[in-house]
Amino acid sequence: MPPTDNALILELKNIHAVYGKKIHALKGVNLKIHTGEIVALIGSNGAGKTTLLKTISGVLPAEQGDILFKGRAIQNIKPHEIACLGIAHVPEGRKIFPRLTVLENLEMGAFSRVDAGGIERDLRHAFELFPILKERRGQLGGTLSGGEQQMLAMARALMMKPELLMLDEPSMGLAPVITDKIFEIIAAINKEGKTVFLVEQNARRALSVASRAYVLETGQIVSEDNAQNLLNDPKVQEAYLGV
Amino acid sequence: MFIEQLFNGLVLGSIYSLIALGYTLVYGILMMINFAHSEVLMVGAFVGLAAYTLLAPPAGGWVALVLVLLVAMTASGLLGIVIEKLAYRPLRQAARLAPLISAIGVSIILSNAVFLWVSNQLLSFPKVVPEQSISLGFMKIGSLQILIFFTSLILMAVLHFMVQKTKMGKAMRACADDLTTSGLMGIDVNKVIAFTFLIGGALAGAAGVLNGMYYGSIKYNLGFLPGVKAFTAAVLGGIGNIAGAVLGGFLLGILEVMAAGYLPNGSQWKDVFAFVVLIGVLLIRPSGILGERIAEKI
């Protein structure tokens, strides 16, 4: 699905990041995401995928380089300010609030919003996308199953009304049938106009839903192409698709 | 006799609970013990006394009580914010021992500042509302005790409502669950942390005034004992757990009053029991009564 609008929403220029004061986790990453795309980032464990998302969302400030969100440099501002600009980061391991109810979790997604009517509308929409969350709205987040927690994490991120949704390993630890469901919803969210940046170890799944993808190895982008070409690339097949 | 002692224990315990809430709220979010909390309580008591002397009608009364409480709570709450900003926030990324030492430093600074610039003497603290004895037939209780008990309960009810129902309260709980993810949700965590110190400090300020009324006098070093006892109460209930702080405070108050009343020479030993409890809890159940067994937060 080619992007209908070619406007850049996110651009990374020569991003370097250091993890735990010692590990040079990102070594000059360049990356572009256009409005309306689903872009996947694939790579093995420890390649720096999670670090890259953390650098974009401000949790781990970049040592060097520029991050432009809709043309605006965001590498030096705080995570909550970046979130308010329209980037929602669903972290690895869901990170829902375990001692808050499902509804309270969703309310926290809308924390910085003041449009009460819009929040109400988005809450109804979240319950349409994830009917199980409506059933469980009064339950504590920590009591949900892994798949339900992933749905809650995504619904909570959507409550932020983001323009760019970044998902870190949404399929991690989930049964295949639940993973199918999650990826269906990712495609549906994208159709509604959200740009999606998807980080996955499950490369086949990621490439099946994405329009373009980057391959990250030891902190560097080693390959970039449309998803179909990468699926057919012998090197990618050997390294990430288990062919 | 027993019922009267029980009520006395609840009264004392309600003061411990108010203080313990401040420890537990801060610990819940930052995983640090705010050892300057007892001095915030002490400053609250002095500000309360100043407010009474300068502003309230000499005869006291309910209006005076509300006024004294509000001024003391505001001052202590703001002091809490200032302490966090100056002494803890710069050390947020440092090793966990660093803010602890900083807290002890703040505590020493505050008690010495009051010692040097305000008074090194025992100052008498007014009852604010004229005291009378009320007989319920089977027991006699002082109006002061009733007042302390219900003031504490009202403050706890307000806190409960705030934490459960308001947006800021929910954000506090979200931050206590996961600070980093709260930031990703667009929550300004520094604001929430400052707000937590405001609330904890305000409760300590109220406790300082109630404690002053209870004992009838205040001194620059008055914070230490109730501070350490309330810390014990927070640990007993399960530090980080709000209901646990309230429960621990009441249990400790009752235990102290009962032990003082019924053990031989108990009243001379009354300050020892809290520490025995602290050691006992740390040995037997370090997570406290309502605390969850969570490993080191990652």
Search tags:
heterodimer, A: 243 residues, alpha/beta, Rossmann fold, 4-stranded antiparallel sheet, 10 helices, B: 298 residues, mainly alpha, two-stranded antiparallel sheet, two-stranded antiparallel ribbon, 11 helices, disordered C terminus
Tell me the series of helices and strands of chain A, N- to C-terminal: EEEHEEHEHHHHEHEHEEHH
Question: What string gives the helices and strands of chain B in order?
Answer: HHHHEEEHHHHEHHH
User: Unreliable stretches of chain A, pLDDT < 50, 5 or more residues?
Assistant: 1-5
Tell me the count of domains of chain B.
Answer: 1
Strand-pairing-aware structural class of chain B? mainly alpha
Give the mean pLDDT of chain B.
Answer: 93
Annotated CATH homologous superfamily of the domain at 8-93 and 161-240 in chain A:
P-loop containing nucleotide triphosphate hydrolases
Helix content of chain B: over 70%
- Would you identify the regions of chain B where 5 or more consecutive residues have pLDDT less than 50? 294-298
The dominant shape of chain B is globular
- Total helix count of chain A? 10
What's the tally of helices of chain B? 11
Instruction: Using a beta-carbon cutoff below 8 angstroms, give the protein chain pair with the largest interface and the number of residues from each chain.
Output: A-B, 24 and 18 residues
User: How do the strands line up in the largest sheet of chain B?
Assistant: 1-4
Instruction: Assign the structural class of chain A, choosing from mainly alpha, mainly beta, alpha/beta, alpha+beta, or little secondary structure.
Output: alpha/beta
If you compute it from the alpha carbons, what radius of gyration of chain A comes out, rounded to the nearest whole angstrom?
17 Å
Please tell me what the overall shape of chain A is.
globular
